[in-house]
Amino acid sequence: MVNPLFHTYITAPWKIEYVKRKKDPNQCVLCAIAQKTPGVVTWEVFRDDLIMVLLNRFPYNPGHLLVSPLEHYENYELVPPELVSHLALVLQRGIKLLKQTHQPAAFNIGLNLGNIAGASIKHLHWHLVPRYLGDLNFMEILETRVLVETLEQTMSKLRQQTSILQTK
Ligand SMILES: [Zn+2]
């Protein structure tokens, strides 16, 4: 039996699912999650009236979070100032949360704006990626992802501490 703790993406089977999906230009996966559309798989950690925090289904590392406004914005410059501030605050809380649950050595926080920058989903979302000592070895040498915990385990850890994300 394959040990679920050690999952590699070397064949990237999920890309088939992505490539074969119905290409509805109006379909936005983050809007579908925000609107709680039935049948849409979501790994939601937290939401308030403005934002949602999701576990990335295809994480770079355990605890890789996505922070996104509930409302569909594609251009960062069009996001109202209150929402910009709130997103920044939730990212700050996300760091605090991951320090509690995963004790990472460092973080990458990223916003990819546009296809060329690596954005596969137009709906704005920040990547909050915890970094662990030695995680570069797996990715740069083996060109594979080895996760030391399952999404379920990550979710369980995060769900116990979501009060950290509450800003109101
Ligand atoms: Zn959207």
Question: How is this structure best described in words?
Answer:
- The chain has a single domain (14-165), classed as HIT-like (HIT family, subunit A), CATH 3.30.428.10.
- The longest helix has 21 residues, at 81-101.
- The protein has 168 residues and is an alpha+beta fold.
- It contains five helices and five strands.
- It has a five-stranded antiparallel beta sheet.
- The protein is globular and about 35 Å long.
- Residues 6-10 have low confidence and may be disordered.
- Bound molecules: zinc ion (ZN).
- Zinc ion is lined by residues 28, 30-31, 72, 123.
- The site of zinc ion has 5 residues, from helix 2.
Main attributes?
168 residues; alpha+beta; HIT family, subunit A; 5-stranded antiparallel β-sheet; 5 strands; 15% strand; binds zinc ion
Summarize the structure.
The chain has 5 helices and 5 strands; from the N terminus they run H-H-E-E-E-H-E-E-H-H. The chain has 168 residues and is of the alpha+beta class. A 5-stranded antiparallel β-sheet has the order 1-2-3-5-4.
Radius of gyration: 16 Å
Strand numbers in spatial order across the main sheet? 1-2-3-5-4
Count of structural domains? 1
Text of the CATH class:
Alpha Beta
Give a topology summary.
Blueprint: H1 14-20, H2 29-34, E1 44-47, E2 51-55, E3 65-69, H3 81-101, E4 106-111, E5 126-131, H4 135-142, H5 151-159
Antiparallel strand pairs: 1-2, 2-3, 3-5, 4-5
The site of zinc ion has 5 residues, from helix 2.
